[in-house]
Structure formats: C-alpha cells, structure tokens
Specification:
The structure is a single chain. The chain is of the alpha/beta class and 496 residues long. The protein has two domains: 184 residues, Rossmann fold, CATH 3.40.50; 235 residues, Rossmann fold (3-Layer(aba) Sandwich). Strands 6-9-10-3-11-12 form a six-stranded mixed beta sheet. A hairpin with a 2-residue loop joins β13 and β14. α4 crosses α5 and α13 packs across α14. The protein is globular, with a radius of gyration of 24 Å.
Length: 496
C-alpha cells in the first residue's frame, strides 16, 4: 500500500533564510503521526506546503503515491482530500454549525441551498463524532472544544483522508481534550491519517504511533513513540539534554513586603477575589479553562472594567484607566492572545521589544537606535529567538518566537510587577527553560511575578505559592510545601 504522505527533498526559502533543507520522510495510512521540533524548526512551513498555502518550493509531495502540487488550501481540501484544523479555529459565529461546515459547498436543489439535506448530512457526522450540538446550533454558542469538533466535522464533510491538527488542545479543558483524543482514535480506526503538531509531549505518548522531528529546518529522525521516552524526544528536538518541566533553580526570595494587594475584585467573570503579591515572589494562578483568571488580571491592569473592589500598589490605592496607566505605575502584562494584543504587526523585533520602555532609549529628545538594537540582541540570545535577527517583522515569525519577543519586551521594562498569562503557550520545550529562568531572575532582582498557566506541572514547578480559581471564584490557596497536582485539581473543580 502506498504511503499516505511522502515528502521528497523539500526545500523552502524565505528572504535570507533557508527554512526547510532537503526534508524527506513518509507517513503511513491510518496512523497518528507527530511532527515535533522547537519553534522555528520548520513544522508550520512544511504544513503550509502540504496544505497549499505555500505553492513555491523545491521537491515533491505525494499523497497515496500520486504527486500533488496544490494551488491553494481549497484545492487541497477538494481535490487532495486533506484538511487542517487550526489552533485558532476560524468560525463565522453568527451562522449555524451546519452553515459553517458546508460553507461554500452547500448542497443545492433547483438553484437554492437544500437546507434539509445540508442539516441531515452534517448531523450524521456530528453524531459519529459524539457531539451533543447539532447543525442548527448557532456557532457562536459553542465552547472552544466544540469548535474543534466542528472543524473536524468540516474535514469529514469534505471526505478528507488526511487531517492535520496544529496545537489542537491549547485552549481546551481536560474533558474536551479527552473527548478529542477519543475522536482521533475513532478516526484512525476508519483509516484516516492524522498529522499531529503539539509541544505537549504527554499528548504525543497518548495518541501518536510515530513521530518525526525537525531541527533548524533539517530532518533529524522518525521514530516509534512506543519505543522511545520523553528525554530522548527532547534531546532529538533541541540537540541537548534539558528538563522540560518547570522547576526552581533558586530558593524563594519572597519578602514580607506587599507590592500588590487586591481586595474583593469583581467583574463579569470573577467574583470577590482577594490576594496579596509580595516582593520577590512568583505567585501562580491555576484553574481550568474558563475559571476567570485572565479576566481578573485584565481588570487588575485596567484593560477591562471591574464591578467592585479595591487595588493597592505599594500601599497606595490605585485606579488604572488602561494598561498604559498600569505600566506607568509599574505593572506590565504579557497577554495570552499574542496575535491581537501582543505585538505590532508592521514592526520589527527591535521596535516590538522597545515599545513599552522607550524612555530608556532617549538621549535628549532623540531615540538611541544603538541602545534599542543592543537590548533586542540581548534577549534574542537569552531567549533563543529564531531566526536570530533583530530587523525582521515579528509577524513573520512562528507563534512561539512571537511569544518570546513579547517576553523580551516586558523583561526590558522597569516595571516591578509582571503578569505572565500562559507564558509558554505554543513555546517549545527548549525555550521554556529559558523563560522559566528569566522569570526567576526577575523575581530574584526584587520584582514580583504573577504566572497564569493551564499547565499544572508548570504552575506548580515555577511558583512560590498558588491561588486556584473555579468559575470566577477563588477556591484555594496552596503554599509551596503543600504543592500537589491532586490538591490543585480538587480546588480547580470547586472542591475542598
């Protein structure tokens, strides 16, 4: 039987960068195949070639023994029977699920859309996937996990034989993730080939049969997941031994001094939350998706309005009107949604890193470009940003490297409180170590840090103390000596 996918000597160039270098490997029909590598390794570029997003490249792509060269993504879907489920699913929220699934390819009768047939066909697929919603459900009412299911339903509607999933669990709850894995198992039984991209290695061991590893645009190896272990995978990905789990390298430096005090904060998605943040402390916020952690911190920084409560910075009550006001008084926030809130699309790495600390680079009334460049190059090196270029547009980099640029920006400021919302989301295992180290160094130097993370080992590994939220309420507070995933999860589901 012919291979589901074959890449033969794939080369791809961007201006000044050789992104993919003679990539050759194959994927078996009906297997779940992981595509692994650090940010900038070439994973997204290879997927974009496969799905017809990039049409100019060297080499051959074969599907089931036949060479293909798609003109665009729609060509790949219709003629190649290959679909991509994105991390951030594109959804038209004002129309129904059925209309989203069949968009542009609705069945017709006498020149009109045959809605009865459309809904029937989509409902059959949704039932196969075990979805509780139906074709007439408004798409905007779906959860993140349900939107992922809708995207998979769309792939099946087009009779796709190959489905690639790019960081599909990034915004899913534990239950939604479990459901997704169950669906992937069923798809494999039906002979559908799954190409799976994720930085969460535990997922690879749960659902994947084989894994191909790329590093700096080079093919490294393809191996059977059942015959390897976590450390070996990481070593192949980064070319060195690293500990992918968050862990403290220095003792807690928290003092008795309270830098930030929040009293009875309430908003649309959080209720009467109180906490204190001490100088030198790394305070973790844990909870399931939808717990209200992000909304709380956005209100703390003046981005979103609050309905009640008080905030004190160094003992003085504050009323921030917006994030610029918070920054002026020494509080910075690294947002979860880096694409819409994190950086300026038309700016280079130099400018994106400097935008929140321009005062540092002024000589009289003029900006010292040399200082800006030196700062940027420092964090490019410390955060292992790829490609290591100060002058390129941040928007043209991979998502994980965009995240590192934003982290570099906030570490460049003179703030005393830094709030990191999902700091390693979409970031490879090698870069996580650098990010954890820099967070720790900031606290060691007398700063105060809040880390919001849905990754339980991460928040327990890096924090001195953890606050747990559930459905907008603070349900628990755990000191480091009492840390355990079981206890944190119990608070996260509203127990204790």
């Amino acid at each position: 039987m012919a291979e589901a996918i074959e890449f033969e000597k794939i080369n791809k160039y961007f201006p000044g960068v050789h992104v993919l270098k003679d990539i050759s490997f194959s994927i078996h029909p009906g297997e779940a195949h992981a595509l692994l590598g650090e940010n900038g390794a070439g994973k997204s570029t290879l997927l974009n070639i496969l799905h017809g997003i990039y049409t100019e490249y060297e080499g051959k792509v074969k599907l089931f023994g036949n060479e293909v060269h798609f003109k665009n993504p729609n060509d790949a879907i219709i003629n190649g029977k290959i679909s991509k489920v994105h991390q951030e699913t594109n959804v038209v929220k004002d129309i129904s699920v059925g209309e989203n699934v069949a968009l542009g390819h609705e069945p017709s009768k006498a020149g009109f859309v045959n809605r009865k047939r459309l809904n029937q066909e989509v409902d059959e697929i949704l039932e196969q996937l075990g979805c509780r919603f139906r074709s007439d459900t408004k798409a905007g009412a779906l959860s993140a996990g349900e939107m992922q299911m809708m995207a998979i339903a769309k792939a099946l509607y087009y009779d796709s034989k190959i489905i690639s999933l790019d960081e599909p669990t990034a915004s899913l709850s534990i239950k939604e993730t479990e459901n997704l894995f169950k669906v992937i198992g069923e798809l494999k039984k039906r002979g559908i080939t799954i190409l799976y991209v994720s930085h969460r290695l535990e997922e690879i061991f749960q659902i994947c049969d084989r894994a191909t590893i790329l590093r700096d645009g080079d093919f490294i190896t393809t191996l059977k997941v059942a015959e390897t272990d976590r450390r070996s995978l990481i070593r192949s990905m980064v070319g060195r031994d690293v500990d992918a789990l968050a862990s403290r390298t220095n003792p807690c430096m928290a003092t008795e001094e309270v830098v930030l005090k929040v009293e009875n904060y309430s908003g649309e998605k959080f209720h009467h939350v109180s906490f204190e943040l001490h100088r030198g402390e790394i305070l973790g916020f844990s909870g399931l998706v939808g717990a209200g952690r992000t909304e709380l911190m956005r209100a703390v920084c003046g981005i979103d309005p609050k309905r009640g409560g008080r905030l004190y910075l160094n003992g003085k009550e504050m009323h921030f009107r917006n994030s610029r006001d918070a920054l002026k008084h020494g509080i910075g926030i690294l947002p979860e949604d880096r694409k819409t809130q994190g950086f300026l699309n038309l700016s280079t790495n130099i400018d994106n890193m400097a935008i929140s600390s321009l005062q540092k680079y002024l000589t009289g009334i003029f900006v010292d470009s040399g200082k800006k460049r030196k700062n940027c190059e420092k964090y490019i090196q410390e955060l292992a940003i790829h490609p290591p270029k100060a002058d390129i547009l941040t928007a043209n980099m991979s998502g994980g490297n965009q995240q590192k640029v934003i982290i570099g920006r906030w570490l460049s400021t003179d703030v005393e409180v830094l709030i990191f919302d999902e700091p390693t989301k979409g970031v490879d295992v090698g870069a996580r170590v650098e990010i954890y180290r820099l967070i720790e160094e900031f606290a060691q130097a007398g700063g105060a840090v809040i880390v919001i993370s849905s990754d339980m080992p991460e928040v327990l590994g890096i924090s001195d103390r953890v606050i747990v939220m559930c459905e907008g309420n603070k349900t628990g507070e755990i000191e480091r000596e009492m840390f355990s995933e079981e206890l944190a999860m119990e608070y996260a589901i509203g127990g204790k």
